[in-house]
Amino acid sequence: MKKYLPIMLLLSAFPATFFSCRDNQSRLYGDQLKDEKQKIADYINLHNIDVITVFPDNDKWKENLYVQTNSGLYFHLVDSGKGDTILVNDLINLRYIKHTLDENPDTLVNMMSTIKYPYPYVFRYSSGTDIPTSWSEAILYMKKSGSEAIFIAPSKIGTNTELNSVTPMCYRFKITVQK
Questions:
Q1: pLDDT the model gives residue 130
Q2: In this structure, is residue 24 part of a structural domain?
Q3: How far is 90 from 93, CA to CA, in rounded Å?
Q4: Which of 11, 79, 137, 158 could form an SS bridge with 148, CB 3.0 to 4.6 Å?
Q5: Is the separation of the CB atoms in 168 and 50 below 8 Å?
Q6: Exposure string (b/e) for 73-111, b if CB count within 10 Å is 16 or more?
Q7: What's the total number of domains in the chain?
Q8: How far is CA 110 from the centre of its chain?
């Protein structure tokens, strides 16, 4: 019996350790979501962004006016562009800059850009497109030719990497549709 005692003690401690780790992970994720909300609020305050919930007319967009949608996206139309809105199966040429909401997002670690690439990111817009929900939603508010927008995407509607790390991102999109 004495030789089995260490094994029994080890096995009895395992469930307590396992469940306490799970509770800790849940708490940490909840804390991460609170931190993300605060980071978005701080970014909005730092950049004097006015948040509304109804889209203004295309010619009524003030410089720091963003619409918060039901999904949590904060959308700002920089240039409405020309033409119709984007349709399913349109072939989109996308140039973008993305950065974190940190105070100094201009470092290579915190920023990604396709501006200097020789070719834009090209994809066919459809409901099955492998693009983040935030991208899909933002594109719906843009026109086919020369439309430009800035948006803040909470992690829940961002890329898988952003979702897993609970990292909100800011994007600047410029799109045209290939004919």
A1: 78
A2: no
A3: 10
A4: 79
A5: no
A6: bbbbbeebbeeeebeeebebebbbbbbbbeeebeeeebb
A7: 1
A8: 14
Query: How is residue 86 annotated by DSSP?
Result: P
Dihedral sign computed on CA atoms, order 8, 10, 14, 17: positive
Beta carbons within 8 Å of 160's beta carbon, 6+ residues apart: none
Could you report the per-residue pLDDT of 99-145, keeping only the tens digit for each?
999 766 555 456 677 877 888 989 889 866 678 999 999 999 999 99
- Mean pLDDT over residues 163-178, rounded? 92
Alpha carbon 7 to its chain centroid, in Å, reads 48
Say how far apart CA 10 and CA 163 lie, in whole Å. Answer: 36
Separation CA 139–CA 69 (nearest Å):
13
Per-residue pLDDT tens digits for 46-78: 999 999 999 998 778 999 999 999 999 999 999
Short-list 159, 134, 162, 135, CA closest to 72: 134
- Cβ(140)–Cβ(125) under 8 Å? no
CA–CA gap between residue 75 and residue 134 (Å, rounded): 10
CATH code assigned at 116: 3.10.50.40
Question: Could you list the residue range(s) of the whole structural domain that residue 165 is in?
Answer: 50-178
Q: How far apart are CA 92 and CA 125, in angstroms?
A: 7
Whether 7 is in a domain gets the answer no
What confidence score (pLDDT) does residue 152 get?
Answer: 97
What is the widest separation between alpha-carbon atoms in the chain? Answer: 83
